């Protein structure tokens, strides 16, 4: 991860780091393929279960950034800030600028507070200035993007820090160069000014909410300040094709500002850009703190060093170069969000506020938690790789709960959204505390989470705004959410069975937190509620099924057809969402053997959908059955068929890194089916060796011993030299450092870890 250097010379600090021998001096960044996920997926499950071809995109962008940065910098082929439309598609061939973006990586949300810088040559043009380009003219890395614009005979390049960027434009001919700067507001809002005296172009783009409170102000803006290495030449503002001889413009349609320069062939123009969510002054402070000079080559080298250090936390050994590309690309994607929101001086916009600014006492403040997704594997990954980051994430969530009065469900654009279902902030904070993350007030955190789990907003307006769990009253009354409750005050309406299942998991998570704090009455109540998943399991069919308030099952039932009471999937797929009590689910089905048969039916029917997160734990659930070897086969098949290193290499929305984090875990040989438990289900590693460099200066090694190159089945596991019969390891095993040796053979070992005593116990 990047350590935010609160010193004047950011680059000097990174250059100093470059001189220190460490795990990141390995040239790992060359394996990262930022274009992965920018084209439509062609994986088997995407083709079967995805929607129309245009919606099968992973929705990642070729971001030049730093890990968990405030702003990502991307080539732009799609104008505006439209839901489910990322700034860049690989299929496009028209370039319209370099964007300072706050796109939620791999999501179906929308950009906000963004702006774009477009270079053109010749005569000034403020409309229809996009130019065709070829991918052969692109260089895309995590630390540098460069594109040769043949029409304009200019090369555009960008590199970045956590809050800032540097762009450089190189002339391939002598000509006039114009830089067009546009805030990208779909609401035709925003402000921009050219200040010839200070040599700056600066402005802001107000952010708006979506989902609950859709269209309302988010209470902050995306601010930017651009500084030029030479005096501004011909300047002005514009709206559409109308050009104005004034220095500022506000709230225009396609409004912006321009600066023109006379340039010689081979001459370079370099600009520095600071961004902020608090103010223009905050953007200036960030710029001064992170990029005080105009040395572009040094900037590129510094950012490359940041990524080498971050990627170097895991070193994998294999002769398969494609597997390395997929692995390090996945690690890069997993480090896009949550997003840093505070300035170098600790100021940040108040959560769910009205342009109010707060100041941190310590650490950093983060937002853009795609919580329904990232609680599963992305945040658990950084519980291992970056404990200080997770402490910051937990403190950030607690601040949101304190400032807004309710713990947010899915906090993005620093606002309540109640997007998706469940209340998985509970999982993240409970998991962190139970693993020993204590750099936050546990009692304060618990009370906020308890408020969500037990209380309903007294003020209806608060509920409509997105505060509190959706349909909690029905859940508590019936011990499931009946079909009669259509959950109207939510973007995801109905989905009653899925909500019941996810609330049961969250209640389990909070029960463990309550138990650790010795809150016995709460623990008992929540532990009972954690079993509510059983109330929507129909023993006559063997599936989770929609249920009426009178206790009767929905009559029209097909487990393989999408239904309104299931979130983004089918009853067969969602039946397996009981991550906290798989053995309890197996008992409902008739025993572990029946669980195995149910899993078999999902895979043999081709109903497993890797492109949607609720299924991510399913392949590992054979580890709760008499045949753990089937997990090894299923996971290896998914690694081989659902991921690649090309633009279409992800089988569905990456959702802020969850799809990618799954790959990181599964390829290493273990996965957190139930993140709160601290247990990781074993599978066969993809690599000959992997070394996780932990921040406590110890290492956790995973070594594969194979009887042949085709070996994928486990027949023995050793932990620190001692034979381990279990099909799982725990958080302490990893964080203590040591060596996990996994012995693989060509055929399944039907006896390895095939009894309940060797498997996780669940509740």
Instruction: Round the Cα radius of gyration to an integer and report it.
Output: 26 Å
Strand order of the largest sheet: 6-7-8-9-18-13-12-11-16
As residue ranges, the low-confidence spans are 1-24
Euclidean distance between termini CA atoms: 35 Å
- Main beta sheet: strand number and arrangement? 9 strands, antiparallel
Shape: globular
Q: Count the beta strands.
A: 33
Number of helices: 20
If you average the pLDDT, what whole number results?
95
Share in β-strands:
15-25%
Helix content: 25-40%
Q: What class do helices, strands and sheet pairing give?
A: alpha+beta
Architecture overview:
The chain is an alpha+beta fold and 763 residues long. Helix content is 27%, strand content 21%. It has 20 helices and 33 strands. The strands form 8 sheets. A 9-stranded antiparallel β-sheet has the order 6-7-8-9-18-13-12-11-16. A hairpin with a 4-residue loop joins strand 6 (138-140) and strand 7. Helix 1 packs across helix 4 (296-311). The radius of gyration is 26 Å and the shape is globular. The chain starts with 9 loop residues before the first helix and ends in an 18-residue tail after the last strand. Residues 1-24 have low confidence and may be disordered. Residues 1-25 form the signal peptide. InterPro entries: 6-hairpin_glycosidase_sf, GH-type_carb-bd, GH92_a_mannosidase_put, GH92_N, Glyco_hydro_92, PNGase. It holds the Pfam family Glyco_hydro_92.
């Amino acid at each position: 991860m990047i350590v935010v250097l609160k010193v004047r010379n950011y680059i000097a600090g990174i250059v100093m780091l470059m001189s220190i021998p460490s795990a990141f001096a390995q040239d790992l960044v060359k394996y990262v393929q930022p274009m992965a996920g920018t084209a439509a997926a062609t994986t088997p499950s995407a083709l079967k279960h995805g929607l129309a071809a245009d919606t099968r995109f992973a929705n990642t962008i070729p971001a030049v950034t730093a890990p968990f940065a405030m702003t990502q910098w991307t080539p732009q082929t799609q104008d505006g800030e439209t839901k489910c439309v990322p700034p860049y598609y690989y299929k496009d061939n028209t370039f319209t600028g370099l964007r300072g973006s706050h796109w939620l990586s791999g999501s179906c949300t929308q950009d906000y507070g963004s702006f774009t810088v477009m270079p053109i040559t010749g005569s000034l043009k403020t409309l229809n200035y996009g130019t065709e380009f070829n991918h052969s003219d692109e260089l895309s890395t995590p630390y540098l993007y460069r594109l040769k614009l043949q029409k304009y005979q200019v090369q555009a390049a960008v590199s970045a820090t956590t809050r800032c960027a540097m762009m450089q434009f190189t002339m391939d001919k002598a000509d006039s160069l114009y830089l067009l700067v546009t805030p990208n507001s779909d609401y035709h809002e925003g402000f921009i000014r050219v200040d010839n005296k200070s040599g700056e172009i600066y402005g802001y783009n107000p952010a708006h909410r979506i989902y609950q409170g859709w269209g309302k102000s988010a209470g902050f803006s995306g601010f930017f300040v651009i500084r030029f290495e030479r005096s501004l030449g011909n300047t002005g503002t514009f709206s559409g094709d109308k050009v104005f001889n004034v220095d500022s413009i506000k709230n225009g349609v396609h409004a912006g500002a321009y600066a023109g320069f006379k340039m010689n062939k081979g001459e370079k123009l370099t600009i520095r850009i600071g961004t902020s969510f608090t103010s223009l002054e905050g953007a200036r402070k960030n710029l001064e703190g992170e990029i005080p000079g105009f040395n572009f080559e040094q900037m590129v080298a510094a950012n490359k060093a940041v990524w080498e250090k971050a990627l170097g936390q895991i070193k994998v050994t294999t002769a398969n170069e494609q597997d390395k590309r997929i692995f390090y690309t996945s690690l890069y994607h997993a480090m896009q969000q949550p997003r840093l929101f505070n300035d170098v001086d600790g100021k940040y916009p108040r959560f769910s506020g009205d342009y109010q600014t707060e100041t941190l006492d310590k650490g950093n403040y983060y937002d853009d938690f795609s919580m329904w997704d990232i609680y599963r594997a992305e945040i658990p990954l950084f519980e291992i790789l970056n404990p200080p980051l997770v402490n910051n994430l937990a403190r950030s969530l607690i601040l949101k709960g304190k400032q807004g009065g309710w713990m947010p469900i899915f906090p993005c654009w620093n606002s309540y959204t109640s997007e998706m279902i469940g209340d998985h902030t509970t999982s993240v904070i409970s998991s962190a505390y139970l693993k020993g993350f204590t750099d936050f007030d546990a009692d304060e955190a618990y009370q906020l989470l308890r408020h969500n789990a037990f209380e309903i907003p007294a003020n209806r307006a608060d509920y409509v705004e997105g505060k509190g769990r959706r349909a909690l009253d029905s859940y508590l009354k019936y011990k499931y959410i009946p079909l009669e409750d259509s959950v109207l005050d939510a973007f995801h309406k109905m989905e009653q069975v899925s909500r019941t299942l996810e609330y049961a998991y969250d209640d389990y998570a909070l029960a463990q937190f309550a138990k650790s704090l010795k809150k016995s009455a709460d623990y008992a109540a929540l532990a009972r509620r954690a079993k509510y998943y059983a109330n929507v399991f129909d023993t006559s069919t063997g599936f989770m099924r929609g249920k009426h308030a009178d206790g009767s099952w929905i009559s029209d039932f097909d487990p393989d057809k999408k239904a309104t009471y299931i979130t983004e999937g089918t009853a067969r797929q969602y039946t397996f969402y009981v991550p906290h009590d798989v053995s309890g689910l197996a008992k409902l089905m008739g025993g572990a053997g029946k669980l195995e048969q149910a899993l078999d039916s999902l895979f043999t029917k081709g109903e497993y959908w890797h492109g949607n997160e609720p299924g991510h734990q399913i392949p590992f659930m054979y580890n709760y059955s008499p045949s753990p070897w089937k997990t090894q086969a299923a996971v290896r098949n998914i690694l081989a068929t659902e991921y690649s290193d090309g633009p279409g290499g992800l089988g569905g929305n990456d959702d802020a890194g969850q799809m990618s984090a799954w790959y990181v875990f599964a390829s290493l040989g273990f996965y957190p089916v139930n993140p709160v438990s601290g247990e990781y289900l074993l599978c066969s590693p993809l690599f000959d060796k992997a070394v996780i460099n932990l921040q406590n200066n110890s290492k956790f090694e995973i070594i594969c011993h194979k009887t042949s190159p085709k070996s994928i089945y486990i027949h023995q596991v050793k932990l620190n030299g001692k034979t381990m019969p279990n099909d799982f390891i725990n958080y302490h095993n990893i964080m203590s450092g040591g060596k996990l040796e996994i012995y693989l053979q060509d055929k399944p070992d039907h006896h390895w870890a095939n009894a309940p005593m060797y498997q996780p116990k669940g509740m």
